[in-house]
Amino acid sequence: MKPIKLELKNFGPFINETVHFDELKEEQLFLISGRTGSGKTILFDAMTYALYGEASTKDRDKNALRSQFADDNDIASVTFTFKINDAIYVAERQLPYRKPGNKTMTDTKFQLHDITANKKLLAAKPAEGRQAVHDIMKVDVNQFRQILILPQGEFKRFLLSSSKEKQPVLRTLFGTVRFKLLEDQLTAETKALEARVHSLEERLYILLEQIKSETKSEGTVRQQFMSYQEEVQRQQQALEAVQADWKEKSELLSAKRRTLEEAAQVNDWLQQLKATEEQQRDLIAKQGYIQEVRDKVSQLKVLDYLKEKKEALAKLQDRRAAWGAKQKALTADKISEENLLASLKESQAQLEQDKSSADEKRRFRDHHRHYIVEEEWQELESRIALIDEEIQAHRQKLENIRPVDTGALLNELTTVMEEREALSQQIQDKQLMISQLEREKSDYDKQNEQAMAKETYEKELNELNLIQTEPLIAAIAQMREHLHSGEECPVCLQQVSEVPPLPDPEALAAYRKIEHRKIRLESLIEPLQAYSFHETAELTARIESLQTELSALTLAKDQCDMRYQASAARYQEDLKNEQTYQSHLQRDEKLQHELLTQTQLYDQFRSRTGSLNYRQFEETWHRYDQVIQDYETTEAELNSQVHDKEHDIAGLENEVSHVTALLADSETEYEALTLKLRSDLEKNKLTEEALALNIDMSLLDTLQAEIEEYRSAVQAVQFKLDELNGQIAGRTFTDIRPMEEAVRNLEDTVTMLEAEKHTRLIRVKDNEKLLQQIEAGLKEYEAKVLKQQDTLELSRLLSGKNPHNLTLENYVLTYYLEQTLLLANVRLNDMTHHRYQFRRKKEKSLGYSGLDIEIFDRYSNQVRDITTLSGGETFLASLALALGLSDYVTQLSGGISLESVFIDEGFGTLDNETLETAIESLIELERSGKMVGLISHVEMLKSRIPAILHVESSGYISTTRFAVK
Hints:
Elements: E1 2-11, E2 14-20, E3 29-34, H1 40-52, E4 77-84, E5 87-94, E6 109-114, E7 120-123, H2 126-137, H3 141-147, E8 149-150, H4 157-160, H5 163-174, H6 177-209, H7 221-285, H8 287-352, H9 355-367, H10 369-373, H11 375-378, H12 380-400, H13 407-465, H14 471-480, H15 505-525, H16 537-609, H17 614-683, H18 688-692, H19 697-728, H20 737-798, H21 808-831, E9 836-840, E10 853-857, E11 862-864, H22 871-892, E12 900-904, H23 912-927, E13 931-935, H24 939-944, E14 947-953, E15 958-964
Parallel strand pairs: 3-13, 3-14, 8-12, 12-13
Antiparallel strand pairs: 1-2, 1-4, 4-5, 5-6, 6-7, 9-10, 10-11, 14-15
């Protein structure tokens, strides 16, 4: 970053000032010179505030940067134009302030533009600006203070900071956050992997516990798995042995059962053959009797046939007589029905005369039926009465309720609310003032503590300065300890020819102790120079006074709250009454409209029906409906009776015709049957008297059944004899009792073996299935365990659990820091005449480590703590480190452009020779292309630096001008 232009309006002592850095032209090293309090550091504040909204140091109040001489309505702002690489940006920020009459501060306004080619808005709000500035600068405000602007009292913070404090600065500069993210990601993956491995292990142990075994295995998952595998193999072998025994016994049982069944079957067939032969002998003896039965059956069949013929002839004669009687009866019924039909038709003619009157009543009934069906017409009169009663009741309520004017009460409520808000604002202002004064008092108390410590250190230092010492002796003694004949002197680089004798050791030890304490006191006093004592009694009194005023305002607000609540309650009650009145008024209007509508419907009903009221209409309608129903019933009955009579007469005519036809046909049939019967009697030499005898026909059925039974028995016996002889095939009877006993014993043995086989089979299958699941899970488990071990070891190494106690990120940062120290040592060697050299502290420690810096002193040939350097030495070391860091970051070109450095004070602690060395280093830095700005009161710098930015003050307003030699 290189500044181009800085515009200040009402900023510190500058009312309307512009600094054009391009006036430097080729001179990039310049001095900012002016009296104390003229506003030199304000220029650094302005650049820092324009970018980050903060002052150049943490101890400077950013809210105090607005000029105290600006008018109340004047805007204070800073506009900073700067260049990064080849891009040009403009950052403009307004300072907040309190306008006249307002109790709160205005909002901060910020804009960031890229004006490289066309003006492009990058950020329009402070919230957007923070990220936008960080994106182009690549550093935050604290890092900006440490490596670009080195302000009073803070430029050595980076040098003295711990590893933990250096880490975020170096992380931003070198972009090592990716290594930190890698560490975090690996840690998270390790924890997740451990959880998955533990879950798999628990699941495997649960499966192992389900293995059915007579003994339980112990040990790891793999050991138990192998043990149970062997156990299941033994169970499988035992199962196979039982299955083989069962198969052998089952086959033997099947063979014995077949032998037993065959012997039993042959014995049964022999018994059946003996019984069947006995039946055959009985049937042969019964053959003569069966022939007599057959002859008797033939005689009974002829008699039965002729008797049926005679009975049929008698029945035909009886039917002919019945048909003749029926013909006479049907003719008489037909004449009677015809007379009744004529009478019914006369009644129909008389009913037709009343039809017109019935039709008129039907039209009235049908046209007005909806008045009967729909309930609303039935309830119309009562509904009109109820509405009228409700109207009278609402009017009575409206007379009792009067409308309320809520305007006056609302005005009163608004006044109380405004008073309440004003008291709340006053309370808030008092609380803010008390908070500000308390913070100011706390700051003064802290400064008083620092001032007291500074006074104590200065007193001790003055006492030590009064002690007379011999510096030359001490210097000789210090050099003597590290010089040897024939070696090179670390100061003049010449060969030492003779080493002088040592002075008194006790005096040297006492002097070293005093000098070390003086150096330590100077380093303690240096950061406390800006602190002085402040009186806090007035602040305490003001705080107590404001607290009293705050209590009074709080009490007044509580009373105002009570009045507000009372007024609000009255307003709500009156508002509720007004709402009730309006509700009743609306209801009354609705009832009036409903009454008018119902009355109009009622008048229309009476006009259409011609009735005075609904009761009269209802009686008329029901009377007409009954008359119509009676007419329709009578008409339907007559029509039905006429139709029935006509149907009956037609049926009688058909029956008479049918009976007449039957009589004619039966005459011919009777004559034919008589001739046939006489012919059959003569053929069988029988008379009609023989047919008159009673014949028991049940005997015929009995005899026929007996013949059929005999024939079937003969056939069955012969068939069975043939079948049994074929099955026996010459075999004889066998005693099967021993065979049955052997089969029963073998069945018991097979049953026990089958039960044992089933039990063992289930156990083996269950165990094999579990072992398959365990084997699959075990492979996954062991793979994850192996991966967990590798990942865990890698995570431990990257998170700092290694011989160097360095995380991955810190390991990378140590490399960058060592490269930075190499460049910084080039400048430090020149500035300290080859006395001091930076070294990275390599001692292991807990937590963050590896980024601490220590000093190697060639004079003592020992490593020293950085805090033992004097004020001037600390300044040179800080400057060399900052410049080395700037050089290395620029070399890496990691997106950060450190093209400028600004130094505020510190040169006054250097002697002339060291100062000259520092100037030469800055000139060398300028030659590398960097802009270097210095603030110092050292007169030697004015003569040595050709470009000076003069800050001139008229007492309260400052201006600037560049002077380039």
